[in-house]
């Protein structure tokens, strides 16, 4: 005689702290940040510190310590360590962004006092440095020509060098090229200017010109282009190369049609980083271009000016009008680099290979 045994499900309540534990509300980091900022300001004022940088450092330290203490109390030490790591990341992010925002704010607020269409379309011809008026047209034209020529020289050489190192190099020549590229990355700008001055101007007998300055800028630009392009080409999967070669396509055509289009976004970004570096250089321009108040549209003959040199010259004068022109020229320089970056990103997105169906 068999008896059917029916088993009832036994419900076991989870032990407290085993499967579930207390969690802080989602608004806790914001509340801790507000408390830390208020406490940092209060401590700074009580101690007689008038520097906002000191207030910010105190608030950052309090934010990390308070986050660790509160999380340890509620969620445990393991979760507290995770939140402290996240807090440190946020603190580092703020420390990096605040100076950039401060720089942008000061440059915009001071530069907009003088910046207008007259300032952009006139030069300093006939205007004394101590007087109000004048413009930045001659310096802007010189910067566009010098940076453009330097890019035309450095970008193809740097791109081809990176292609050789990644796709063909592997022997002693590639090692030597890599070594010298790394050495050139740390060359001061004044050394590049002295090299062109000794060879182009003194040995060959050419005078000051925008082209001489562009050659010095190209020397500074090439190693940055090589290193950034090399890293981008290394990120291209080898499967793409192998698939192209398996179809019988020559290696040069594989590089041209498969590898470079795949990495075009990163390559463009690297080129723009190099352009941003050389755009603000003053020492080579001061040695090789000399600077002038007149408009010189010919980069191959005669002295030219540039935006960094214009900022240096105007700030050196020291008068209110000259310093205002220096801030306005600095704002034009930042806008120039920003426009170049936006254009380059647009071109990279346009030429990048399309994904999806």
- Would you report the number of β strands? 0
State the secondary-structure class: mainly alpha
Strand content: under 5%
Chain-averaged pLDDT = 85
Q: What proportion of the residues is helical, as a percent range?
A: over 70%
Question: What does this entry look like structurally?
Answer:
By secondary structure, this protein is an all-alpha fold. It contains 14 helices and no strands. It has helices at residues 28-47, 52-74, 77-111, 117-121, 137-168, 172-185, 189-203, 210-234, 238-246, 251-262, 264-279, 283-288, 307-317, 320-351. It is flat. The protein starts with 27 loop residues before the first helix and ends in a 6-residue tail after the last helix. The model is unreliable at 1-5 and 7-19 (pLDDT under 50).
């Amino acid at each position: 005689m068999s008896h059917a045994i029916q088993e009832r499900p036994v419900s076991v309540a989870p032990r407290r702290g085993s499967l579930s534990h207390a969690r802080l509300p989602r608004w806790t980091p914001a509340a801790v940040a507000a408390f830390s900022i208020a406490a940092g300001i209060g401590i700074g004022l009580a101690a007689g510190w008038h520097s906002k940088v000191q207030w910010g450092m105190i608030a950052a330290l309090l934010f990390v310590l308070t986050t660790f203490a509160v999380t340890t109390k509620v969620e445990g030490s393991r979760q507290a360590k995770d939140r402290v790591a996240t807090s440190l990341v946020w603190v580092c992010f703020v420390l990096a962004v605040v100076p950039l925002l401060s720089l942008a704010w000061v440059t915009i607020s001071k530069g907009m006092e003088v910046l207008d269409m007259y300032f952009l379309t006139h030069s300093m011809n006939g205007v004394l440095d101590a007087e109000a008026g004048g413009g930045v047209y001659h310096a802007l034209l010189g910067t566009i020509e010098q940076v453009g020529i330097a890019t035309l020289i450095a970008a193809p050489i740097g791109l081809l060098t990176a292609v050789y190192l990644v796709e063909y190099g592997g022997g002693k020549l590639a090692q030597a090229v890599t070594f010298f590229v790394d050495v050139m990355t740390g060359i001061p700008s004044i050394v590049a200017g002295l090299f062109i001055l000794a060879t182009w101007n003194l040995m060959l007998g050419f005078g000051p010109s925008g082209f001489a300055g562009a050659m010095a800028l190209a020397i500074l630009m090439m190693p940055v282009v090589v290193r950034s392009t090399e890293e981008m080409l290394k990120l291209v999967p080898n499967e793409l190369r192998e698939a192209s070669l398996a179809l019988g396509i020559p290696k040069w055509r594989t590089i041209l049609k498969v590898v470079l289009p795949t990495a075009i976004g990163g390559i463009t970004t690297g080129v723009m980083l190099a352009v941003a570096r050389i755009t603000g250089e003053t020492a080579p321009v001061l040695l090789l271009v000399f600077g002038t108040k007149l408009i010189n549209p010919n980069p191959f003959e005669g002295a030219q000016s540039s935006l960094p040199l214009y900022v240096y010259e105007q700030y050196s004068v020291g008068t209110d009008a000259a310093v205002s022109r220096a801030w306005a020229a600095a704002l034009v320089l930042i806008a120039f680099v920003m426009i170049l970056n936006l254009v380059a990103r647009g071109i990279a997105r346009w030429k990048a290979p399309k994904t999806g169906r």
